[in-house]
Design brief:
2 strands; about 75% helix; about 0% strand; mainly alpha; two-stranded antiparallel ribbon; MetI-like fold
C-alpha cells in the first residue's frame, strides 16, 4: 500500500504544473552561428606572416632613415646593405666567416650545456652539489665572459681554445640556473610517482625531472645560445683570428677598418639572420616536439 502511494506521488511530481506556461521563443536577430573565416584573416592568424610584416616594417624604417640621412659612411640604407650582403654571399666571404663562427660556437655551446647538466644533476641529487652550484653561480654568473678574454689569451693563446673558454663561461651559468630552477619546480606528486616506480639516480632525473622541467630547460638553452652568440662576436672583434682565419666578428672588424660600412651592416645582418633562424626554426621545432606536444605550453 505504501509503495503504490509513493508511485502515485512520483507521477504527480512528473506532471507539468498547470500554472506554468512555456512559450517557445524565436530570435531572428542572432544571425548565423558559424561563418566562414575570410582568407586574409586565415593568413593573419599565421605567426610567420605577422613576423614577416614586422620585419618588413623595420626594413622600411631603416630604408627611410638611410635615405633621409644620405650618409652611407655613417648609416647605409637597407638597399645598400642588401647589395653588400649579396655581394659578400656570392663571393663566398660571408658563408665562410659564418661557418667558422658557428663551428667555434657549437663546440663552446655543447661543452657549456654538458657541464651545466652535470652541475644541475649533482645539485638536485646531493646537498653538497646544491651548495656548490649556488656558490659558483653567485661568484661567476655576474662576471662578463668577455672580461675573461685576457686571461684566456694567456692560458690558451690566440686561437680556438680562448674562444671556447669564454663561450663555456657565457653558457654554463645561465643554463645551469634555469635547469636547476626547473628541477626544483617539479611537483611533489611527480616526484612520488618516480619514487614509487623505483626510479633513482640518472633514471629518475631523465624520466621524471627532465620532462617535467623541460620548459625551464628550453628557456635556458635559448638564453645560453644568445649569450654565446654575442660573446663570440665580441671576442672576435677583439682578437678575431682563430687558427689563421676569422669569423663574422673579424669580418665586421676588417670592413670597419676599411670604411666599408655597408659590408659592416651586412655582417651584422648575417648575425641577426642566424639568430632568427635558430629561434624560429631549431628551437621552435624542439618546442613543438616537446612542451607543446606534451600540453605544457599554449
Amino acid at each position: 500500500m505504501r509503495e503504490v502511494t509513493a508511485m502515485q506521488h512520483l507521477d504527480v511530481l512528473d506532471r507539468p504544473r498547470p500554472d506554468v506556461f512555456q512559450e517557445v521563443q524565436v530570435f531572428d536577430g542572432i544571425g548565423a552561428v558559424e561563418r566562414p573565416i575570410p582568407a586574409w584573416e586565415r593568413l593573419w592568424n599565421r605567426g610567420w606572416l605577422r613576423k614577416l610584416v614586422i620585419i618588413a616594417a623595420l626594413a622600411g624604417v631603416w630604408q627611410l632613415y638611410g635615405v633621409i640621412s644620405d650618409n652611407s659612411l655613417l648609416f647605409p640604407s637597407f638597399t645598400d646593405t642588401m647589395q653588400a650582403f649579396i655581394e659578400n654571399v656570392m663571393n663566398g666571404k660571408l658563408p665562410a666567416r659564418a661557418w667558422t663562427s658557428l663551428q667555434v660556437l657549437l663546440i663552446g655551446y655543447i661543452c657549456g650545456v654538458a657541464l651545466a647538466t652535470l652541475l644541475s644533476v649533482l645539485a638536485i641529487t646531493t646537498r653538497i652539489g646544491n651548495d656548490l652550484l649556488e656558490t659558483l653561480t653567485s661568484m661567476f654568473n655576474p662576471l662578463p665572459a668577455i672580461a675573461l678574454l685576457p686571461l684566456a689569451l694567456l692560458w690558451f693563446g690566440l686561437g680556438m681554445g680562448s674562444l671556447v673558454f669564454v663561450l663555456i663561461h657565457s653558457v654554463l651559468w645561465v643554463v645551469a640556473l634555469n635547469m636547476h630552477a626547473g628541477f626544483m619546480g617539479v611537483s611533489p606528486t611527480l616526484r612520488m610517482v618516480g619514487r614509487n616506480y623505483g626510479l633513482s639516480g640518472v633514471g629518475y632525473v631523465v624520466r621524471i625531472l627532465v620532462p617535467a622541467a623541460f620548459p625551464s630547460i628550453l628557456t635556458g638553452l635559448k638564453v645560453g645560445w644568445a649569450f654565446a652568440w654575442r660573446t663570440l662576436i665580441a671576442a672576435e672583434l677583439v682578437f678575431g683570428v682563430s687558427s689563421g682565419k676569422g669569423g663574422l666578428g673579424w669580418f665586421i672588424f676588417e670592413n670597419k677598418n676599411q670604411l666599408e660600412i655597408p659590408a659592416v651592416f651586412a655582417g651584422l645582418l648575417c648575425v641577426i639572420l642566424i639568430g632568427l633562424a635558430m629561434e624560429n626554426v631549431v628551437f621552435r621545432w624542439i618546442e613543438r616536439r616537446t612542451v607543446r606536444r606534451w600540453g605544457m605550453q599554449n
